[in-house]
């Protein structure tokens, strides 16, 4: 996909905040006179704004200590009530364990967990997180803050706290010597460098029919849906087994080699793999393929775990989602590897597997009967203070933002 000036000079809406920020503007996309790379150069840290931005008098800045259980519980409660990024008909809430896992990434910086509280009650009314990563953009390697979990209390969204939160995160990141950012959202802002869609594979269609998530018709009955979604009773790949901590070095080598295929991808090391990919109960699960003769690990796959409580009088209490995460297939056809992921997810009681269209996932999505999420908008990926003139096709992006 290319973005040219004729497609981007007439956005549907104006973005008064983003038009003042160092991001790719609509009229710059595809224009040969604008150079690729950082939009503004780093300045001495002493010249970075030292004081926090002003807030309305009834609010104050706060930093979330993700290691403190009470503070984490407070953040979890706030996000569960007010974070509504996804437009999907059926989505999940983030668990407290997931939030700690996401925000305690290797190299995390506590000051980038930025919150706004009401002065009198000390209740959270706003939050945004930045997680530092090393990101390769073509041949350039940058230290980038991945912005995530931007959330404003539903009753305060008219007060324009979001731009102030974003600017405060940028200021704190710059004080740490971080000058670029990355973020993803369903919203249309200036200007995405990649857009993609989620797909989902139904594992328990009868349950989803009972919950009215999928509708049957004359052509597709419940019985036919169950038959179409049927999977083998066990993984079919020889040597397919649960990932163990001792696999981290081998998985790191596989992932590093796999990510070389993409124009934009994180630079990962063993600490990344140990934190994000080695299984952690209720948060992330992973599997490897080990050659039975040589004991060499040739492939791996992983998925993130989410649940959704079912309210009302339903006989079901919870839905389980497996979100496909990083994988690498060098000894096993990728379609066969991901099919085994579906099998172990089904064996583990999951109802739906979701996968993004990036990272070359289009090689298996259709074959394994993934469908587009109902009524969901594309996910747009953005860079802060970095200009890519031409957008990437989804198969050229090796970065997954949860």
TrEMBL record:
Residues 43-194 form the Glycylpeptide N-tetradecanoyltransferase N-terminal domain. The keyword Cell membrane does not apply. This is Glycylpeptide N-tetradecanoyltransferase. It catalyses: N-terminal glycyl-[protein] + tetradecanoyl-CoA = N-tetradecanoylglycyl-[protein] + CoA + H(+). SUPFAM superfamilies: Acyl-CoA N-acyltransferases (Nat). It is an enzyme of class 2 (transferase). Residues 212-389 form the Glycylpeptide N-tetradecanoyltransferase C-terminal domain. Belongs to the NMT family. Coiled coil: none annotated. GO terms for cellular component: cytoplasm. Gene3D superfamilies: 3.40.630.170. GO terms for molecular function: glycylpeptide N-tetradecanoyltransferase activity. Its EC number is 2.3.1.97. It holds the Pfam family NMT_C. Adds a myristoyl group to the N-terminal glycine residue of certain cellular proteins. Keywords: Acyltransferase, Transferase.
